[in-house]
TrEMBL record:
Organism field: Dyadobacter fermentans (strain ATCC 700827 / DSM 18053 / CIP 107007 / KCTC 52180 / NS114)
Classification via InterPro entries: Amino_oxidase, FAD/NAD-bd_sf, Retinol_saturase
Molecular function GO labels: oxidoreductase activity
Sequence ranges assigned to domain Amine oxidase in this UniProt record: 19-358
Record-given protein name: FAD dependent oxidoreductase
Keyword set includes rRNA-binding: no
Length: 510
């Protein structure tokens, strides 16, 4: 690095290259600012990362995405970023992009498009047509209260509407119908937000569901292409991105402004403004706990993270298992809300199944991903170990055995969904909460960040601005998780520096 006397000062130093960091970098670089993104890992992208085993590509976090039909919100955001036409996409089945499946083998398909979705549900539950219509209307009305979700900057705002923030998803769905199976079908994809019966707000459920109804797609050959294309766009606009740069601290001037961040290897990066795309509680540790108000620090560090995951990847023998152009949410319990607080004796009680879309494969699947809830306490015995490509570390034989035992339980369950599948498997790999913790850098390997709570909505709300005048936050803890939620959070972060109306108009005109 150059000596500090002539060291470059960036307009923006962004810590973390997850989607939030890359999206902020793209927005700001497009607007003419000098930007640098610092990533601690060997690969950029956070949850967008993929890895390869036995010549098979596996996604770690992004298995499918919504809002990508022409003119929809994510479609317009990706057009604005200049990456839409560079992404390899495959639209999921119109009549069944998600299938909610139960222990008795019964299946209920979610169809794309709100009207189609509504009609499909009514075909399963003809006596419940009124409840289903009321539900679909409520989803539509709720989403209308979120301006940015609809590419607007003004209008009805959810922040001023207590009834939106405090409406509980489970309670609302239960209020519509006494039909237990219908209740479970309506909430059957709650793995998308790690739904907690007593806490998850209905708006979280509604925003996520509706985005998938507006165009559900898989990324052909993996979700890492979003990170790759965004990073190319950032560099085209003059931005810089560096890997293996783990930020561990910061220097301040006498006014309490950050002047530069310090990396683990001693390198420093000077900046005028700083954006953290890492978990808020980790951000506090990195930038100095004493710099934050004790009340804020205590609140953020006490917030509950959503559960983590045990992810099993199966590689198939050639031409043995047909590709599924839909996802399955499998429940072995009667109440779909109970999977998140599972009983270890009957784990996994609920899980997500998909077959990634691979360009070189036709009607047959190359692999299958199975995502199960797992609490970080299950891997507590190895909590003091650390292992990534950037910082390789060994975990003991007991950990390897733990993973093998869990894989066996998952495969036994999958055999009940697809009898005979075991004979088609070439190899099995898995990732535990520790894998996600080490790569993403969040306390417990949380899937979806901080738990949103309908009983105290303001407690779980985190502002993009911090008490450090030139430190801002972005990422899944700011608005909502997922590709769309994190993209929206990046725009919210950038509104501190850019004209909100003009920026969103550019997105709409893209």
């Amino acid at each position: 690095m150059q000596t500090s006397a002539v060291q470059k000062e960036y307009d923006f130093v962004i810590v973390g290259s997850g989607l939030g960091g890359l999206a902020c970098a793209n927005i700001l670089a497009k607007e003419g600012y000098s930007v640098v993104v610092l990533e601690k890992n060997h690969q950029i992208g956070g949850h967008l990362q993929v890895y390869s085993r036995d010549k098979t590509i596996y996604d770690t976090g992004v298995h499918y995405v919504g809002g990508l039909d022409e003119g929809e919100n994510l479609y317009q955001f990706f057009k604005y970023f200049g990456i839409l036409d560079k992404l390899k996409l495959k639209r999921l089945d119109d009549d069944r992009f998600d299938v909610i499946r139960f222990e008795d083998g019964s299946e209920y398909a979610y169809a794309q498009g709100m009207e189609h979705f509504e009609q499909k549900l009514i075909s399963y539950f003809p006596d419940e047509a009124a409840a289903i219509r009321a539900y679909c209307q409520k989803v539509t009305d709720t989403c209308a209260k979120f301006p940015l979700y609809n590419l607007e900057t003004a209008g009805d705002n959810y922040l001023n509407d207590e009834s939106i923030l405090t409406l509980n998803a489970y309670d609302y769905i239960a209020s519509l119908t006494d039909n237990i199976r219908l209740r479970n079908v309506l909430a059957g994809n709650n793995l998308l937000y790690a739904g907690v019966k007593e806490k998850t707000p209905f708006y979280v459920h509604a925003l996520i569901l509706k985005s998938y109804l507006n165009g559900a797609y898989k990324f052909v050959d993996g979700g890492s292409q979003i990170a790759i294309q965004l990073s190319r766009a950032v560099r085209q606009h003059g931005g810089e991105i560096y890997k293996h740069k783990k930020v561990t601290g910061a220097h301040y001037n006498e006014k309490g402004h950050i002047t530069e961040v310090v990396c683990e290897n001693g390198e420093t990066f000077r900046g005028r403004e700083f954006i953290s795309n890492i978990h808020p509680s980790v951000t506090i540790d990195v930038f100095g706990p004493e710099r934050f108000l004790s009340v804020y620090r205590a609140r953020v560090q006490a917030l509950e993270n959503s559960v983590s995951t045990f992810l099993v990847h199966i590689s198939f023998k050639d031409n043995t298992f047909e590709y599924l152009n839909y996802n399955i949410y499998q429940h072995h319990i009667d109440n779909v809300w109970e999977g998140v607080s599972y009983d270890q004796a009957t784990w996994p009680q609920t899980y997500f199944i998909c077959t990634p879309s691979i360009s070189k494969k036709g009607e047959y699947a190359d692999s299958m991903s199975i995502m199960c809830y797992m609490d970080a306490s299950e891997t507590a015995a190895w909590a003091d170990t650390f292992s990534t490509v950037a910082e390789p570390g060994a975990r003991d034989a007991a950990y390897a055995q733990f993973k093998k035992d869990k894989e066996a339980l998952v495969l036994a369950r999958i055999e009940t969904v697809f009898p005979g599948i075991s004979a088609k498997i070439k190899s099995v790999h898995s990732a535990s909460p520790l894998t996600f913790r080490d790569y993403i850098g969040n306390g417990n390997g949380t899937m979806y960040g901080i738990v949103k709570d309908s009983t105290s909505p303001m407690k779980t709300r985190i502002n993009t601005r911090t008490k450090i005048p030139n430190l801002h936050l972005t990422g899944q803890n700011i608005s909502l998780h997922g590709i769309l939620g994190v993209t929206v959070s990046a725009f919210v972060t950038c509104f501190s520096f850019l004209d909100k109306e003009k920026l969103i108009q550019k997105v709409k005109n893209a």
